[in-house]
Design a protein that fits this description.
Number of helices: 9
Number of strands: 7
Strand order of the largest sheet: 3-2-1-4-5-7-6
Helix content: 25-40%
Order of helices and strands: HHHHEHEHHEEHEHEE
Structural class: alpha/beta
CATH class: Alpha Beta
Number of domains: 1
Strand content: 15-25%
Largest sheet: 7 strands, mixed
CATH superfamily: Vaccinia Virus protein VP39
Low-confidence stretches: 1-32
Mean pLDDT: 88
Length: 265
């Protein structure tokens, strides 16, 4: 405890400390994700009243604003949402790119045959509020869209493409096709659940996770340049040893967000 009475020397010393820079090592960086300024078009898309309430509830765990700002989604962009599931990101992308942009919700035929029903994202494409969304049904290795793209986006799906129910798909072919579909300078953004380092493809079917080093190696082998990672979905509390659907970890898995770019030349 500090004594209630201080000598004049001590008081002057404290005053000096308050006005002069201290020597020694700098303070440690703050823990946790660094705050990101969300792009205005993306912020507007997140608050759009046509979004389902259930989607908005998921925003606190999925951080779509930070993720799509990192991806560089802009108005007028042409985007593919690869394996869109229920369309959580499809809706956001649609509003973020605006009427001059377009979103191609790419659903592999392999998934449609497995589900034995029409893709859930079809309902979004039929909704007049999302008139710039087109569903593309095609086999996965033959990835292609009607026009060149600014962004190919896939969230929590890369590991699935290695699963046996998807073929498994030949990712060397898939990634090359994505490379061809992008404009020079276009971005390929991959989000997925992290497996243990060095585990390779061991956990893709059992835990629905993938070693991030495998993703980086496969995508760069197709000609992409690794541009960086957003750590907004990182979670050190995840042991990476439990399946992503386990109630103890669902919605709180450690995930990597990798940004790859097709060279401009």
């Amino acid at each position: 405890m500090r004594k209630p009475l201080l000598s004049l020397v001590a008081v002057l010393g404290l005053a000096a400390c308050a006005t002069e820079p201290t020597m020694g090592p700098p303070p440690p960086p703050p823990s946790g994700p660094v705050a990101v300024s969300i792009a205005p078009n993306i912020a507007a898309a997140l608050s759009d009243p046509s979004r389902p309430a259930a989607d908005m509830i998921r925003d606190k765990d999925r951080h779509p604003g930070e993720v799509l700002t990192f991806a560089g989604v802009r108005q007028g962009a042409k985007v593919a949402d690869l394996i869109p599931g229920g369309g959580y990101f499809t809706r956001i992308l649609s509003k973020a790119v605006g009427p001059r942009g377009h979103v191609y919700a790419y659903v592999p035929d392999e998934l449609t045959k497995l589900a034995k029903r029409e893709p859930a994202v079809n309902a979004i494409a039929r909704d007049p509020a999302y008139s710039n969304v087109t569903v593309v049904l095609n086999t996965l290795p033959n990835f292609s869209t009607p026009e060149k793209l600014d962004l190919v986006f896939t969230a929590q799906n890369y590991h699935d493409m290695h699963d046996k129910f998807m073929g498994p798909a030949d990712l060397s072919v898939v990634n090359r096709q994505i490379f061809k579909a992008l404009k020079p300078g276009g971005v390929y953004l991959v989000i997925d659940h992290s497996a243990e380092a060095g585990s390779g493809l061991r956990d893709t079917e059992t835990l629905h996770r993938i070693d991030s080093a495998v993703v980086k190696s496969e995508v760069t082998a197709a000609g992409f340049v690794f541009e960086g990672e957003s750590k907004v979905l990182r979670d050190a509390a995840d042991s990476r040893k439990v399946g992503v659907f386990d109630p103890s970890i669902r919605g709180k898995t450690d995930q990597f967000v990798f940004k790859f770019r097709k060279p401009s030349r």
